[in-house]
Each structure stands twice: as structure tokens, then as C-alpha cells.
Amino acid sequence: MSEAIIAKKAVLVEEVTEKFKAAASVVIVDYRGLTVDEVTRLRKQLRDAGVEIKVIKNSILSRAAKAAGLEGLDEVFTGPTAVAFSNEDVVAPAKIIDEFAQEAKALEIKGGVIEGKVSSLEEIIALAKLPNREGLLSMLLSVLQAPVRNVAYAVNAVIESKEEEVA
């Protein structure tokens, strides 16, 4: 191999290493058997959610994962591999890919990384079942509003009982 090719690969490994380190979550998939239309739709859904998906050679992925301190991913780096990187929303790539895999049976989740920790297929699927960030914020807001709403109901009940006594 020429020195130029080796240098090019070293730069690629470094770029992927930085992606692994910066990502809130990473989902690794086997995309073999997907049609061009399905791949295009999946890429669009991921891009709209701020998730980057790349097809990267397994040897590059393996070296980058080791350099990022992610041990135990070598067994998922087999066959055609695409990697979805999300820097902000931990749930988004897992949720989108899992939902897409329900209709496109050829898409197979192999594993991933959640907040810097190597995760199994089961953990990625469990993550996919969680509500997205907006859903979680909505649930939190509902919980925070409940005490205020209860106080308002109690005050209203007292006012109504006082009005009944006066009448």
C-alpha cells in the first residue's frame, strides 16, 4: 500500500474516532437488502432528526472504536455496516431506525453506543421504545404542573363553598 493511501486511511480513522467520542448515541446497522428508495427515505428521516448516517468499512470502524476507547464492538463490525451518529438526541437514531426496521425487514440493528458505553442490541431496542426528547419534556411539564393545578382546584373549591354559605 502506498504511503498516501495509508495517510488517507489514518485521517479517516481519526475522523470516525472523533465522531464516536462526540456522539450522544451511535446505532450500528446492517443495511443489506434495502432498496435504494428505502435507503433514501431512511437517510432523510435521520437527517431531519439531526442524525448523520455513514457507510464505513469495518476495518476503519474497528480501529476508530479502539482509539475512542470502545471495546467490544468488533463482533458487530461484520458484513455491510452503516453507522448512525447523533450528537444531541440520544433516543432519535435508535427510535427512527427501529421504526423503519418494522416496515423494512432487511434493516437489522446490530448494536451501538449510548453515551460513551458500548450497548447490546437489546439495550438499543429498549432505548428505541423510550419517548423522544420532546415527549420526555412534555411528561416532565405535566408532572410539574400537577401540584399547581391541584392548588388551583382546592382554592376554587374553597371559593365555591364560601359563595354557597353567603347565598
TrEMBL record:
Forms part of the ribosomal stalk, playing a central role in the interaction of the ribosome with GTP-bound translation factors. The keyword rRNA-binding applies. Part of the ribosomal stalk of the 50S ribosomal subunit. The N-terminus interacts with L11 and the large rRNA to form the base of the stalk. The C-terminus forms an elongated spine to which L12 dimers bind in a sequential fashion forming a multimeric L10(L12)X complex. This is Large ribosomal subunit protein uL10. The keyword 4Fe-4S does not apply. One of its GO terms (cellular component) is large ribosomal subunit. The gene is rplJ. NCBIfam families: PRK00099.1-1. Belongs to the universal ribosomal protein uL10 family. GO terms for biological process: translation.
